[in-house]
Amino acid sequence: MRSFLTTQISSLKNDLLENKSRYAKGLALGISGGALFAFLNIPLAWMLGAMAVTATTTLNGISIACPPWLRTIMIAVLGVMLGSAFTPELIPQIVTWWPSALALAGVVTLVTAINYLYYRYVAKFDPVTAYFSSTPGGLTEMALTGEAYGADMRIISLVHATRIMVVVSVIPLYFRFILDVSVPATAGSQSAISSIPLPEVAILTACGLIGIFLGRKLKLPAAAFLGPMLLSIIVHGTGISAFAPPRALI
Known about the structure:
Layout: H1 2-39, H2 45-59, H3 68-83, H4 98-121, H5 127-134, H6 139-148, H7 153-178, H8 198-217, H9 223-237
Helix pairs in contact: 1-2, 3-8, 3-9, 4-5, 5-6, 5-7, 6-7, 8-9
């Protein structure tokens, strides 16, 4: 574990020195976009605002970036948050969800097959690129895995980035303005920072850091997400902790 942390810290320092200008511009633009959308009371303001401003910037040829280590930390936070939903009271109910799980698996399989046929025979992608462009999953994970199997990483990235932008842009606005369902401008969580005792902070932090380490050691797909999530499920499902990551961090 110590060797892992030492290697990661050294890599982070080198990366920061090489890309500090692009990172600074990217974070400044993202924060500005999020603040603007929050001021306008737009749903999911900090996600949609940052995404809109940075996408517009990159389409105009300005080179910006987000530090990979910061992205990894945020992915781990989300993993811990989702894992915190598995309380001792919830776990016995999971066995009753199998009809929904089967239906979801069927829908995902059908949609993936339809997407594959379109990308393969209409868009004329090669078979591997068409498959990884069709398969639901994280943008980075699908692009990197596809590239490892010989697919065109640029096409996969564009397809999944477009999908994500459309989904997170349209659905909250649809719920807010068409269905008149209240969608908060910022994501919520169970806990405020001031309400979490220090021992619980240590437990949640350990779920994130150790989860990333174990996820990579076990070669899990999307290790920075699944590792912390699985560890958080264990910690919260056994009643060791009843707290979620604070709202401000989410």
